[in-house]
Amino acid sequence: MYERRHFHTVFALLGPGSDREGTQQFFEQAGYQVQVFKNPEVFFEELKTVQNPIVVLETLALRYKLSEWVQALAQVRAQLPWIVVAPIGQYSILASYQNRGLVEFVQNDQPYVLERLLWAVDRHARKEEMQMSLRRMQEELIIARQSQLLQEENEVQDFSTLVEKKFREHWLVQKPFTLLALALDDEKEVIEFWGLETLKKAQDLLLDLCVRRWGLRDVQTLDGRVYVMLSQATNDVLKEAVDLQAQLQEQGRQALGFRVSLSGGLAESHIHTHQASELRRLADEAIRHMQAKGGGRVGIPRVVRGGVRGDVPKDVG
Predict the structure, then answer these.
(1) CB within 8 A of 261, min separation 6: which ones?
(2) Which helix (H) or strand (E) holds 57?
(3) With 80 labelled, which of 11, 21, 100, 251 sits at a CA distance of 20 to 30 A?
(4) pLDDT at res. 278
(5) pLDDT in tens, 134-190
(6) Is there a contact between 92 and 99 (Cβ–Cβ < 8 Å)?
(7) Which residues face 13 on adjacent strands?
(8) Rounded to whole angstroms, how far apart are CA atoms 144 and 11?
(9) Cβ burial, residue 59 (10 Å; 0-12/13-18/19+)
(10) pLDDT tens digits for 71-113?
(11) What is the reported pLDDT for 155?
(12) What does the CA dihedral 144, 146, 152, 153 come to, rounded to 10 degrees?
């Protein structure tokens, strides 16, 4: 047994006077599985079942026109590239197939035909294996992306825990903590008029602007919305949100060709609620309230009694 060179099978159709046994032995010694035929009908029938074939045709084997042979090959294996062994005088006939990437020409009226044929077979095998490697890489990327999505789902479950932690930490050091929620307006209309891909680009632009402004650690994306956890009071967060709206509209107009409308909602700890679990609900409700009024604004819930130091600041937005 010879060590396998590639996992492909050399599948050859030779002319009546060619050395079938010598060709088979040569490629077996080179590490290929080999099937050599001299009958075109048997060749095509067997080709239906073989896996990973590299087709080799010697034009001396043809009993009809080359175009008919190519048509028969396409019916069995569509778009399968092949190697042709022929004299240089037949090159003009084969040139159109070579230009379309369907055939590689090996001249048989020169010495070392089998060696040059082996080089051509090796090139086909390496090209196919490279394509398979790329496909495996794409599959691995898909699996990695699915794993990332699963991780993101788990992070979604932990988002409330993160907000609770920041809520307590800010209360202990007597600093303001505000949760800002942001969402694009009229998403259905954007999809209908501009398409889903454009909506995704707008969402990516919003997320990119938020990360650039506030940093990756304080920004979360959940259910199509962007949440930002900020160590700032309501009025300061409101100014930042309004500035972000203007920035998104300007960059959206340049990148996407239309005005991107953004609504927001915020809730500050111990100003709008004394419970961490209520921050997201209040911010979401504020967004819905603003979008019901036409969008493009930032909503603020009603205040409750008692701020960080037991009072209610005047600058709550």
Answers:
(1) 184, 185, 186, 249, 295, 296
(2) strand 53-58
(3) 21
(4) 93
(5) 677 777 777 776 666 656 555 555 788 889 989 999 998 899 999 999 999 988 888
(6) no
(7) 37, 57
(8) 37
(9) middle
(10) 888 787 777 787 888 888 787 777 777 777 777 888 877 778 8
(11) 55
(12) -150
Tokens of 50: 């073989």
**Secondary structure of residue 27 in the 3-state scheme:** helix
**Nearest by Cα to 55 from 36, 68, 38, 75:** 36
Residues near 43 by beta carbon (within 8 Å), at least 6 away in sequence: 11, 13, 37
pLDDT the model gives residue 313: 40
Please tell me the distance from the alpha carbon of residue 117 to that of residue 30, in angstroms, as a whole number.
12
pLDDT-derived band at 191, boundaries 50, 70, 90: confident
Question: 3-class SS at 243?
Answer: helix
The first and second tokens of residue 183, run together, are: 């969402």
For 219, how many CA atoms within 13 A lie in the half-sphere containing its CB?
Answer: 16
Rounded to whole angstroms, how far apart are CA atoms 142 and 291?
35
